[in-house]
Write a structure and sequence with these properties.
306 residues; alpha+beta; four-stranded antiparallel sheet; three-stranded antiparallel sheet; 7 helices; 9 strands
Length: 306
C-alpha cells in the first residue's frame, strides 16, 4: 500500500481507516471514499473486494461483481445504493447543466433583444439621414439651377456668330458691323460692349465663331430676330464671294452648363424623333411635332423623363 491517498494526496501514515482498490491497487483514506471504520472492518471480515469509484463504474458496465465468496443480499443492496448515488450525481449534474444552458439562452435572448433595439435605432437614424440627404440634394440641385440661371442671365446681351471665315489681321468689330448691315440692322461702335473670336477647337476645320456682347439687350434680340427672318443668310450676303456660300448662324450665347444641356437635348431629339429644338432667352425648348405641347428643359432629369 502506497504512502499517500489517491484522492487528497495526503499521507496515509498514522491513519487507521484506509482502504485499497482491488483493481487499480490505489490507496485511499476511508473518509475520502465515504467509508467508516465499521465499513472497512466489515469488508475485511466478509473478505469482500472493494473498488474505487472509477473502477466500480468500469466494472458495472458488465454488471458483474467479484467476490471471494458468493453474492449476498447485502452486495445487491450496496450495488443498488451505488447506482442510486450515481443517478443522483448525474441528475444533479444534468440539472446544473440545464440551468446553465437556460441562463445562457436567457442571456443570449436578452442580448438579441438589446441588439434588435439598437438595430431599430440605427435603421431609424439611417432613414432620417437618407431623408435629410435627399432634402439636401434637392436644395443643392435647386441652388445649382439658380446659379446657372444667373450665369445664363449675365449673357442676355451676348450672341455668337458662326460661319464667318477668319482672315489674317481681320478687324472683328468691322466683321460684326458687316453682319448687322447684311441683315438690315446697322451696328455702330456704341452698340458693341466687347467682341472677339472664340478659341479654335483642336482638330476642327471650321472657322472659330465670334462672340459679341451688345450694350443693350434689345440690340442682341433684334439681331437674332433678323437672322431668324433671313433664313438663308450666308457669306455671299456679306460680299464674301471668293468661295462657296457658307451659312452664317447667329445664336444666343449659352453658359457651359446650359450648352451641355443643349447638346444632351439634341441627342434626345435625334433618338426620340422630336421635330423641334430651339433656344429662347437662354431657355431650351423641345416639341415632338407641330401642334404638340412645348417642353421646357431646365435640367438633365427633364430629358430622362421623356
Amino acid at each position: 500500500m502506497s504512502d499517500s491517498c489517491n484522492t487528497c494526496l495526503k499521507s496515509l501514515k498514522a491513519i487507521k481507516v484506509k482502504v485499497s482498490c482491488c483493481d487499480c491497487n490505489k490507496n485511499f483514506h476511508g473518509k475520502c471514499v465515504s467509508l467508516s471504520a465499521e465499513d472497512v472492518n466489515y469488508l475485511m471480515e466478509q473478505g469482500d473486494l472493494w473498488r474505487c469509484k472509477p473502477c466500480s463504474q468500469q466494472r458495472r458496465k458488465s454488471m458483474a461483481l467479484e467476490s471471494k465468496g458468493t453474492v449476498t443480499f447485502d452486495d445487491v443492496i450496496k450495488l443498488i445504493e451505488e447506482l442510486r448515488e450515481d443517478f443522483k450525481r448525474v441528475e444533479t449534474s444534468l440539472g446544473a447543466s440545464i440551468e446553465f444552458c437556460h441562463n445562457e439562452v436567457a442571456e443570449a435572448r436578452k442580448t438579441v433583444e438589446e441588439q434588435k433595439g439598437e438595430i431599430s435605432k440605427l435603421v431609424k437614424t439611417v432613414d432620417e439621414l437618407r431623408s435629410e440627404n435627399n432634402g439636401l440634394q434637392r436644395k443643392i440641385a435647386d441652388l445649382e439651377l439658380r446659379v446657372e440661371d444667373c450665369e445664363q442671365y449675365s449673357r442676355r446681351n451676348t450672341v455668337e456668330i458662326h460661319g464667318v471665315p477668319m482672315q489674317k489681321g481681320e478687324n472683328v468689330v468691322a466683321i460684326v458691323k458687316d453682319v448687322g448691315r447684311s441683315l438690315g440692322y446697322p451696328i455702330d461702335d456704341t452698340m458693341i460692349d466687347a467682341c472677339h473670336r472664340l478659341r479654335s477647337r483642336v482638330g476642327s476645320e471650321r472657322h472659330p465663331g465670334i462672340i459679341v456682347k451688345m450694350v443693350r439687350r434689345l440690340d442682341s434680340e433684334e439681331l437674332l430676330q433678323k437672322r431668324r427672318v433671313k433664313r438663308n443668310f450666308n457669306t455671299h450676303d456679306m460680299g464674301l464671294t471668293s468661295g462657296p456660300a457658307v451659312p452664317i448662324y447667329i445664336n444666343e450665347s449659352l453658359s457651359p452648363a446650359r450648352r451641355s444641356l443643349y447638346n444632351a437635348a439634341r441627342q434626345v431629339k435625334k433618338d426620340k424623333n422630336f421635330e423641334y429644338l430651339w433656344v429662347r432667352s437662354g431657355k431650351i425648348f423641345l416639341r415632338k411635332k407641330q401642334g404638340s405641347n412645348v417642353i421646357t428643359v431646365r435640367k438633365i432629369e427633364d430629358l430622362k423623363d421623356l
